[in-house]
Design a protein that fits this description.
four-stranded antiparallel sheet; L-rhamnose mutarotase; Rham/fucose_mutarotase; racemase and epimerase activity, acting on carbohydrates and derivatives; Dimeric_a/b-barrel
Length: 107
């Protein structure tokens, strides 16, 4: 499993609503993410709108492509696009390179 970290920028005036929307993510969206290979997915939001996402995936490109084929993802992305500076978030993720990881192996 590969660890993936990405950033996006939420519009500062939309932070409260963005948080509220994520307290009730649609069940069919959650099912689609799992089926597409997104595991241990978390989002972290800073007060200035910097959004950091973290997930595990065997093949992130394939996981993104699988989501792109789902109707629920199209609806979710259309609803969420106005929250982001660059528009539709699934098209503007800035994936970061991992430079260090403290594993669980022997000391």
């Amino acid at each position: 499993m590969r660890r993936i970290c990405f950033t996006l920028q939420v519009k500062p005036d939309r932070l409260d609503e963005y948080r509220r929307r994520h307290t009730a993510v649609w069940p069919d969206m959650l099912d689609a993410l799992r089926a597409a290979g997104w595991h241990d997915y978390s989002l972290f939001l800073r007060a200035d709108g910097l959004l950091v996402g973290y997930l595990l995936a065997e093949d992130f490109a394939a996981a993104r492509a699988a989501m792109d084929t789902t109707e629920v993802n199209s609806r979710w992305q259309a609803e969420m696009a106005d929250f982001f500076v660059d528009g539709r978030p699934d098209h503007h993720m800035h994936v970061l390179d991992e430079v260090f990881h403290l594993g669980e192996g022997p000391a």
